[in-house]
Specification:
The chain is α/β, with parallel strands linked by helices. 39% of the residues lie in helices and 11% in strands. The chain has two domains: 78 residues, no CATH class; 306 residues, Peptidoglycan recognition protein-like (Lysozyme-like, 3-Layer(aba) Sandwich). It has 14 helices and 14 strands. Strands 1-2-3-8-7-11-6-12 form an eight-stranded mixed sheet. Strands 5-4-10-9 form a four-stranded antiparallel sheet, covered by helices on one side. Helix 1 packs antiparallel against helix 2, helix 1 packs parallel to helix 4 and helix 2 runs antiparallel to helix 4. The protein binds zinc ion. The site of zinc ion has 5 residues, from loops.
């Protein structure tokens, strides 16, 4: 029996009739025809595309057909596949959903990680607080990262202080990570460092002084570690720096080392070939700087043998000192840089407290600076990895009213270092604030200095008596006779 059914699209009707032949039970077939024709899939897009229309029609028909065909009935291959797919549709759907979810999660995570690495979520970056991380591979362009570079404010310094440590130690030398080799076979001892710093603030353990001062108010504080480095020149006769003089240059250095050793004059000597000799071990005082004053932001130091490490260049300083082979040479300056790094790292020494003998030396009897003049000008601070400490204000002037005279100015080449002029200006301003003349203030400060110095000297001699120390703790360096008058 052929049932004629009316529908807008004859292709659909034809297909429904064609598929209905698989149903053998007449009532089922009729039911299928009615239901399927009533579900005509009306799609404007499918209407325009031939193959899509065929596919849509067949899908709709097969969906109806698989519902009415019994499970065990014989089917043509096309129907069998569809029928099987229809029966497994729920497990397939569940599996597909799970698979899609997993794929979506993995993809999402990957996208998030990449976005985060690119800094898209960095709020600080968006508000402009942080320099963006720029990665260019391969890179000819500098890579900018958020990490701060290693603290090394002065490029001249080369190694950061924490990069300097002792690598090796034998009975003859110590080898350091910055390349320095310190020769130790001539090492001698005096006494461990032991001194009073004049602190600007009252320490917890206050030491009472047997005198009152008028203008200078400091608090003695007991210390036993070096706080600074003092650079000297040995004022030796120099031979020409030439290969033919090799053995004679070495002979002179060896005599010098022996002399320094006997007098316990310096902690270190740098010879003309840049070799570093440890003479008086650096945790002991040396007789390099008798009457002297230096100060930092925490304290003033008077008589620096105990508080400063003495480092001497074999050489002959004058106001016209030049860096050249026959004078102070490059090997010595480089060794000074390495030794300074080692000592600053070992004792945590402030840059400000690495100064020259000429800057700290005083004559306490006439309150004049510059009794010793070695390195009073011309010290190559930058080449030694230090800031220019000629700009520091000498505490001898600012705190104790010391002066310089014409002879001093002439001896250092006529030009004062900047710190002296700044110190004079500060003293003048202080006098004005206190309502007195600069000379009046100077006199009061000088008087105060003598009180402190006498007390320090007394404490020193008491300490010697109590511990039966035999060493001298004086200034054994010969002063220069450069004064013209
Ligand atoms: Zn000196």
């Amino acid at each position: 029996m052929r049932t004629s059914l009316e529908h807008p699209d004859p292709t659909y009707t034809r297909l429904v009739e064609q598929y209905s032949t698989f149903i053998t039970v007449p009532s089922e077939k009729l039911k299928f025809l009615r239901t399927t024709l009533g579900k005509y899939p009306n799609s404007p897009l499918a209407d325009r595309v031939g193959w899509l229309k065929q596919l849509t029609f067949r899908k709709a028909i097969l969906e109806e057909l698989v519902q009415v065909l019994p499970a065990d009935s014989p089917k043509p291959p096309e129907i069998a596949v569809i029928y099987w797919l229809y029966r497994v549709r729920y497990p397939v759907f569940l599996f597909s959903t799970l698979a899609s979810t997993i794929v979506a999660l993995v993809l999402g995570q990957w996208l998030y990680q990449n976005a985060r690495q690119a800094g898209i979520f960095d709020l600080r970056l968006q508000s402009g607080q942080v320099t963006p991380k720029v990665i260019v591979v391969p890179s000819l362009v500098p890579v900018i990262t958020n990490e701060t570079t290693k603290a090394n404010p002065d490029p001249v310094e080369g190694f950061a202080l924490e990069d300097v440590w002792m690598v090796d130690k034998t009975s003859d030398f110590e080898q350091y990570s910055n390349g320095a080799r310190i020769l130790t076979q001539h090492e001698v001892e005096t006494e461990p460092r032991d001194f009073f710093a004049l602190s600007r603030k009252a320490p917890k353990k206050k030491i009472s002084l047997p005198f009152d001062t008028e203008q200078a108010n400091f608090y003695p504080e007991h210390k036993d570690k070096p706080i600074g480095i003092l650079y000297h020149v040995t004022q030796s006769d120099l031979l020409p720096f030439e290969p033919t003089y090799n053995s004679r240059i070495k002979g002179k250095s060896s005599h010098l080392i022996e002399y320094v050793r006997q007098e316990k004059l310096y902690n270190y000597v740098i010879d003309r070939f840049g070799q570093i000799y440890s003479i008086v071990r650096d945790d002991h005082y040396a007789n390099h700087s008798g009457n002297s004053i230096w100060g930092d932001d925490t304290a003033i130091y008077v008589r620096l043998n105990h508080s400063f490490i003495g480092v001497a260049f074999e050489g002959n300083w004058s106001a016209s000192v030049k860096l050249n082979p026959d004078d102070i040479n490059e090997a010595q300056i480089y060794s000074c840089k390495l030794l300074t790094q080692i000592l600053r790292n070992k004792y945590k020494i402030k840059n400000t407290n690495c100064v020259t003998h000429g800057q700290v030396s005083i004559n306490p009897s006439d309150y004049l600076i510059g009794f010793h003049l070695d390195w009073a000008i011309g010290f190559p601070y930058a080449s030694c990895g230090l800031k220019n400490n000629y700009e520091e204000l000498p505490a001898s002037i600012t705190e104790f009213g010391f002066k310089y005279d014409r002879g001093f100015q002439k001896a250092i080449g006529g030009k004062l270092w900047p710190g002296i002029e700044l110190a004079e200006a500060r003293l003048k301003a202080r006098a004005k604030d206190s309502g007195m003349s600069t000379e009046e203030l100077r006199k009061k400060l000088q008087k105060d200095f003598t009180l402190y110095l006498n007390w320090i000297n007394k404490m020193r001699s008491l300490s010697k008596v109590n511990t039966s120390k035999s060493d001298e703790d004086i200034d054994k360096e010969k002063p220069l006779k450069l004064f013209g008058d």
